[in-house]
Write the C-alpha cells for this entry.
Amino acid sequence: MQLKIQYYALMREQAGRSEETLDTSATTPTDLYGELVARYGFTLSREQLKVAVNGEFSDWSRPLAPGDAVVFIPPVAGG
Amino acid sequence: MRVRFTESAIDTQSARRELLDLGAGGYVSFEGWVRDHNEGLEVTRLEYEAFQELGEKEGERIIVEALLRFPVKHALCIHRLGSLALSDMAVWVGVSSAHRGEAFDACRFIIDEVKHRLPIWKKEHYRSGDSGWVNCERCAAAPAHSHTHEHA
C-alpha cells in the first residue's frame, strides 16, 4: 500500500527529503520504521521516537491503511 | 489557536493585548531567548522547525489543561521557527488572571509542557563550525549510555 511520510529535523537530513509517498508492505508504524532504518540508516532507535498518524499521536502497533500520513517524531527540544 | 508558530519576530505587544480582561489584575509572561552556550559548547545561532499541525493541537491541549488546573483568565504561547540569532526570542508565554499567584503557576506549567510535549526541534550551530540537533545526536551516538543530565 501507499503511505505518505514526512520527515523532520535529524531524520529529514538523514533521509535527504522532507516527505515522500512510499509503497510498502509494512502494516504498522513499527514495521515501517524498521523498513526506513534499513533504507536511510536512521540513527535514532524506535524507543527514542514517537509516531503520529494522520496528524495525531498514535500507537506503534496501530494498523496502517492506504493513504495514511505517518510522521516519526524525534526527541523534541522546543523553548 | 492559543499556541502558534511564526517565522518572524514574536510581536509581544499584540499578543499581550489578547490577554486583556476586565477581571484580570495583571499578567505574567515568559520569554525564552537564544543563549550563547549549551552543555559546554559555544552556540552561535539556532534553527527551529516544528510539525505544526500536531504542535497546534497538542499546544491547545496544554492551554486547556492550564485553564483547568489554575483559575486564570487567558493564556497564549507563540513559538518562533526558522533561523535565530543570539538573544532572539524563541518562545513567549503570557497568562492573565485576577491574582498573580496563579498566573505565575500557569505560565510555568505552560512553558514546561511546551518544552516536553510539542513537536519542535532545535539545531544548534557552534563556534567550532559543528552543528547538532539538541537531544538527538549526542544521545543517538551513545544509545547504551544512560543520560541523567537536564536539558535546559
Remarks:
- The interface with chain A takes residues 32, 48-51, 53-54, 57-58, 79, 90-91, 111, 114-123, 133-137, 139-141, 143, 151 of chain B (CB under 8 Å).
- DSSP finds four helices and nine strands in chain B.
- Confidence is low (pLDDT under 50) at residues 140-152 of chain B.
- The two ends of chain B are 26 Å apart (CA to CA).
